[in-house]
Amino acid sequence: MTRTVADTKPEDHLTKVPVQEAVLNTYLGMAHIAGTGPEGTTCRQCIFYCSRNGTHHWYSHKRKDGRAGLLKAHYCNRPIVGKAERMFPFDAASCRLFEPSERPPIIVKPAPPKGVK
Ligand code: SF4
Description:
Layout: H1 18-24, E1 49-50, E2 75-76
The chain binds iron/sulfur cluster.
């Protein structure tokens, strides 16, 4: 028996499809769809996640409550034709073009050496 529009219930189309979920978690500026990289990794751990031309500061200033600043949003520098040049948060789930960095930036701004303010 063929289903018609009249047979369709409203709740049939209210379920999120997994692909939609991944696209919703993808930021403009990423090289590919978020969550398609190695399990549990984020863009922060990827060699392509960095500042543009080395001119962007890595960390925000000290927070109002005195805690150290956090890692700021940065760019994905993976060369992809037509990719948007936008910054996005470090905790974005990695994409399938992920390549592990040997020294990923830490999340909280490191304390300055003793004697330096
Ligand atoms: S995992 Fe790497 S290549 Fe993919 S979007 Fe993030 S920084 Fe770019």
